[in-house]
Amino acid sequence: MTAPARPLQGKLLNPFIKFMFFLWAVGTAAGLVRFTQGLGAATAMNDGYPWGLWIAFDVVVGTGLACGGYALALVVFVLNRGRYHPLVRPALLTSGLGYGVAGVAVAFDLGRYWNMWKIPVMFWTWNGSSVLLEVALCMMAYVLVLFLELSPAWLEGLSASQNPARAAWARRWLPRAERALPFIVALGLVLPTMHQSSLGSLMLIAGSKLHPLWYTGLLPLLFLVSAFGMGYAVLFFESIFSSSAFGRPLETRMLASLGRFVAGVIVAFLVIRFGSLLLGGKLGYTLSSGRHSFYFWAENLALLAGAVLFMKQGTHGRADQQLQAALLSIGGAALYRLDVFLVGFMPGPGWRYFPSVGEILVTLGLIATETVIYVVVVRKFPILAGVTLAPRREVPAGLKQGATP
Amino acid sequence: MPHAVVAEASEPSALSRRDFVKVCSAAAAAVGLPAWAGEKMADNVAKGKKPSVIWLHYQECTGCTESLLRASAPGVGELILDLISLDYHETLAAAAGYQVEAALEKTMKENAGKYVLVIEGAIPLKDDGIYCYVGGQKAIDTVKRVAEKAAAIVAIGSCASWGGVPSASPNPTGAAGAPEALKGKTVVTLPGCPANPYNLLGTVLQFATFGTLPALDEKGRPKFAYGRVIHDDCPRRAHFDNGRFAQAFGDEGHRNGWCLYKLGCKGPQTHANCSLLHYCEVPGAWPIGIGHPCIGCTEQGIAFNVPIHQNMPIDRPTAPMAYPGVNPPQGKQSLIAVGLAGLVVGAAAGAGYVASKKLAVPPGEGPKEG
Amino acid sequence: MTVTRRHALQVLGTAACAAAVAPAVAEARAVKASNPDDIGLLFDATRCVGCRACATACRNANKTSATPASVNGGVYDAPLDLNGNTLTVIKQWDAGGKAGFVKAQCMHCADPACVSVCMMGALHKEARGVVAYDVERCVGCRYCQVACPFNVPRFQWESATPRIAKCELCRERPGNKGPACAEVCPRGAVITGRRTELLAEAKRRLAATPSAYQGGVYGETEVGGTACLYLSPVGFDALGLPRLGTEPAPALVETVQHGLYQGFIAPVALYGVLAIVTWKNHRSASAGEEDAP
User: DSSP secondary structure string, C60-84?
Assistant: First the structure.
């Protein structure tokens, strides 16, 4: 019913990838400083701002951006909109990479990272009231689930392997993976619902230190809805990016039909956002908080603009507007999350924080790594649909690629 | 018995018990013993339990004895006639020659195991100790012989404690303190040049009254006197803490009584109680009190080794009095980081804008790979 | 394919309800009050003379190392604030002509935010209300620092093997002698004892010389009550003590979380619904595919 996904093939090294390797090297150097000299040497984090760029951006924004798989799984598998199926695999891949990067960022950020293994293992020490514990366990489980959700893709990739034993193994497991998929997908929906909302709950306890523009009991709901918004917006971005980068045809029409739905999600977010301020009697802060007011309007106006552009897709789809809408929505929602964790976080007079060069370099290095892995995987495994330019390899007889046998 | 050998200047006066208890109490108070210790001391003396003291002099200047002579509460007369029985002391003895040496032998025999041995002066150990003879005996031989049957051994002054002036480089006679000469024996050391007489009085009177020695540190120094450094209790400490230093002798800071650390004061390294207990009840009678830096006379390795006006690192530094505000500024912001962040965000926004403009071209001329 | 908005709203609604409605329905969480046996400190800012004997005693009792000159603006061991090696610090306040000193250390909340958020219970309540730290269970996530309304837990930023540092009321001091700071204070500016007795003493002082104090007892009701109490001759703002409500910091979030995850019923139910829907859709989609040519 749809064009099957195929490996892109093609050359791996080009100037862009070389630049990514450079960023990776610089980030690794900064990471070396962090692991040998302590967090204070590489980061600007301090006792007032114990969470900096790595948590606020790499983890909180990063996993929000990695919600494409989550958001799309909802549309495709639950709302049964099969025509978006070609978007699923790339979305799951970027989700997996996004969560993987978040996991690495956490390892960089944890002061006593060598104790990390204790979190999933030492269950008798679990503190049930810790939101962070729930987030940590959920995220760990979700990375596994994403890997399983992608199992048809990598099993297909393996079944084309030169090694006959490996190919046979993959061919045997492929149908089983397909049968188990619905139950894995459902898990892949529940886990993000839990931890994406809990990312918002994380800051509920810091109520006395969070600016009133961002502090609301609805933080979990706002984070959940923003996860959807970011997830869909990233689908747009990624589809357009992979089209222009790999010469695939644009999926403008398919995306356009999703536009109104995305706009609705963003509007829902804005309604909850302003509604909670209105009910809390805090609308005045939107104008009277100086720097904070600026950030507040920046995030909300970007989201509003994104919503308007998404809404327009319903009447006539245009790729440039889709990209703009996606970028505006991503920017707005990312800023919202950054604001909750950094800009709106006010530990008290005297404290200040701005990410250090080291933190920025490590973040860039992680993004570069993510990009390189993405490029390598889409070239080696059947992720992207509608691939025409890359040379094809013969598919072994008896295997129908990209579909259920 | 005891009165036979003391100087004629200190004729025993007929004291009432009341006066005697006063003397004992004053002596007890001067060295930090409780008031009832004075009474107990008086009782001991009345029962004829005055401790016998043998005082040996070797390589020294007799300054410690001189400073003891100038103590007044109790005066040396009361001390050696009423409180203790000073049976052998080369400087204070009226007798001389064979007569006084015989007194030494007699005291040692009669009070074996009960007398107190006070050593003043260093003992030369080089070349088998030939550099100091008293009464035809080598210092090291006599000191070992007398120490054998002593109930307590006190080394007074830096010379007896660790060598003092005679041991200064190049130390041609191998002068050493009593603890080194009498290895294996407990020697109470009272370094100082001279030693503060009250530290001796305190030690001897405690022994006389209670039969015990004060708590000692690892160098044998009584903790009550040598537990802290001069700097800890210096009257000029406030100037040190506030950074007010005399820069040269006679300058404004010096005339105003500021800290002498920059002039080479060894107070921060020197364990002694001079800053609390001045010499001979004369207020301010100690080096820093008269405007001179402490020379560290009690400290082995400093006195007679480090130049008097050379200043030294602080032994146990303490933090200055400085307070943060209730909300001190904390956290750092680097302009380079701000610039880098601006660059990254700008590049991302710019790339997004350019990409969207490229997409706006009619289909068919879409972006190329690469 | 025609189930567009309606279907979408149904499913989204499920998630939204789980997130938004459940906490409202859930019962409010029971407030953890302090026990009569809990120990604490009472600091009286009218008595402190800033001698910092407490800070020195704290260093000795807890064997913390001096603050190097690099972290505090070039002055040796003059910590600007609590830090990874400093569990208590004396700060100077200045309130329009009046000046004095204030001691900072862990407040030992009856219902501490740090304990509520700590993933594996590295921070936990010990006997007698002491908020204690177990380094073996700490991963260094620093959520305690984010959560604490007083910014008390501190992290060893300079170390490659860091830990959290905070006052534990000298719980590991040999001989069960209680906090060292209170032991050495020459003015009785900081005293230790049972919280109930300290509170009574604070009230007694307030009643004896009401004109000497302002603002009652800080810590009596703040964030559900703290074991460390403050008296001040000026407003508590001037002392750098934050204005906080009487509700414990963990109250709201624990109500929300316990509401959402009570017995894990909501997540399991959501999973069940989603699994059935997905499975049905998947089956029909597969069937459709097989029918196709």
Answer: HHHTPPPPPGGGTTS-TT--SS-BT
Spatial separation of the C-alpha atoms in residues B8 and C86, rounded to whole Å: 65
pLDDT one-digit tens code per residue, A213-271:
999 999 999 999 999 999 999 989 988 888 887 777 788 888 888 888 899 999 999 99
DSSP letters spanning B269-327: G-B--TTTS-GGG-TT-STGGGT-----TTSTTTTTTS-TT-----SS----S---BSS
Q: CB–CB of A118 and C81 under 8 A?
A: no
Please work out, in degrees rounded to the nearest 5, the angle formed at the alpha carbon of residue B69 by the alpha carbons of B68 and B72.
90
C77 touches chain B (CB under 8 A): yes
Please check whether residue A49 is in contact with residue A351, taking contact to mean a CB–CB distance below 8 angstroms.
Answer: yes
Least confident of A106-110, B308-312, C243-247: B308-312
- How is residue B355 written in tokens? 């990409």
What pLDDT sits at residue C2? Answer: 40
Q: Which residue of A has its CA nearest to B368?
A: A247
Contact status, residue C286 vs residue A404, Cβ threshold 8 Å: yes
What is the radius of gyration, based on Cα positions, of chain A? 22
**Local confidence band at B338 (pLDDT 50, 70, 90 cut-offs):** very high
**pLDDT tens readout for residues B218-231:** 999 999 899 999 99
Helix axes A252-279, A291-312, angle to 10 degrees: 140
Residues whose CB is less than 8 angstroms from the CB of residue C210 and which lie 6 or more positions away in sequence, other chains included:
none
Name the pTM for this structure: 0.73
- CA dihedral B32→B35→B38→B44, nearest 10 degrees, is -110
Q: Which residue has the tokens 């007569």?
A: B99
- The answer to whether the CB of B115 falls within 8 A of the CB of B107 is yes
Q: Helix A252-279 to helix C5-25 angle, to the nearest 10 degrees?
A: 30
- For B346, counting Cβ atoms within 10 Å of its Cβ (0-12 exposed, 13-18 middle, 19+ buried), the class is exposed
Closest CA to A105 of A148, A152, A142, A139: A139
Q: Average the pLDDT over each of A43-47, A351-355, B224-228, C3-7 and give the range with the smallest value.
A: C3-7
Q: What is the ipTM of this complex?
A: 0.88
**What are the tokens at B191?**
């370094």
Long-range pairs for B351-357: beta carbons < 8 A, 24 or more residues apart: B352/A323, B352/A324, B352/A327, B353/A324, B355/A240, B355/A244, B355/A323, B356/A320, B356/A321, B356/A323, B356/A324, B356/A327, B357/A320
Q: Are A34 and A43 in contact (CB under 8 A)?
A: yes
A11-23 exposure pattern, b = at least 16 Cβ within 10 A, e = fewer: eeeeeebeebeeb
Check CB contact under 8 Å for A193 and C18: yes
DSSP state letters, B15-47:
--HHHHHHHHHHHHHHTT--HHHHHHHHHHHHT
Strand partners, A384: A6
Q: Is B164 left (phi over 0), alpha (psi -120 to 50) or beta?
A: left
Q: Do C257 and A82 touch (CB under 8 A)?
A: no
Q: Does A4 touch chain C (CB under 8 A)?
A: no
**Tokens in use for B319?**
């933090």
What is the distance in angstroms between the Cα of C83 and the nearest Cα belonging to chain B?
11
Distances (CA, A) of C148 to C143, C227, C230: 9, 15, 18
- Asked whether the beta carbons of A118 and C139 are under 8 A apart, the reply is yes
What is the DSSP code (8-state) at residue B73?
Answer: T
> CA A239, CA A326: separation in Å to the nearest integer?
11
CA atoms of C265 and C262, how far apart (whole Å): 6
- The CA-CA-CA angle for residues C111, C115, C119, to 5°, reads 150
Q: Which amino acid is at C9?
A: L
User: Minimal Cα–Cα distance from B294 to chain A, Å?
Assistant: 43
Q: CA torsion, points A75, A81, A87, A89, in degrees to nearest 10?
A: 80
DSSP annotation of C134 reads: -
Q: Please state the rounded mean pLDDT for residues A13-32.
A: 92
